[in-house]
Write a structure and sequence with these properties.
The protein has two helices and no strands. By secondary structure, the protein is mainly α. The protein has a domain of about 45 residues.
Length: about 60
């Protein structure tokens, strides 16, 4: 197994196409984009996500104690 399944794509594409260099270039660029954009997108979504209060009403409430 390789990162992003590049070896699997190569095995599947080999009998189907003559232009393996373009298939491998496309798949390699796809993996690089996911590696570079993924963390930035995750960080952006975490910082801009709405804050949800999951506290149960009445639990650990000093006004009730």
């Amino acid at each position: 197994m390789s990162l992003g399944g590049i070896d699997a794509v190569a095995i599947i594409a080999a009998p189907a196409t003559r232009d393996m260099s373009s298939v491998m270039a496309l798949q390699t660029s796809r993996v690089l984009v996911v590696i570079l954009v993924g963390p930035v997108l995750a960080r952006f979504l975490c910082h801009h996500a709405p804050v949800v209060d999951l506290a149960v009403p009445g639990e650990n409430d000093p006004a009730i104690d």
